[in-house]
Amino acid sequence: MGFLFVSGNLGLDFAGTVGARRDRRVEMLPSPADLARWTVEAGLLDTAPSAAPADLASARALREAIYALATQARTGEPLDAANLDALNTAAALPPPTVRLDPSGLTRSGSVTNALSAVARATITLLGDPDTARLRECEAETCTRLFIDASRHKARRWCDMRRCGNRAKAAAYRTRHHP
User: Fold this and answer.
1) What pLDDT, on the 0 to 100 scale, is given for residue 115?
2) Residues 74, 135: contact at Cβ < 8 Å?
3) Among the CATH numbers 3.40.50.300, 3.40.50.970, 1.10.1040.10, 1.10.3300.10, which is that of 10-176?
């Protein structure tokens, strides 16, 4: 199963590796190997780095800090100092190494390097004064955050193919089969 990259920001996509946070929490990074695979699918690294249980624990802590901070920014709450510290600490580490040679672009590094890039993307997002574009998916069980870049700023779902279609089908059933 592939990961979903629909949030419009790498940090929000990383925070989205937990689904249904309010009820039946779905962990999409159950192992260090899944974390390593995410770094490749996210386009941060060309090959999966070695990942240890400690890397997974650090990644999950950063992921929760990102989700909490983005939620606070979305709702206008003050940003939590401990979560900001975790985010800034991760961002201070070196990002993946990018190299251009005659055969093309290569991206290499460790899980820590990849998480630095995730943290930097999150800082760029949360440092933007226009956090009004941050949304949470309106699907009943989805808790994915995303940037509403739609023309009329009316995007309701993280992904139309998944959550949008389900919501529309449920509304149709309710209207036609009460």
Assistant:
1) 99
2) yes
3) 1.10.3300.10
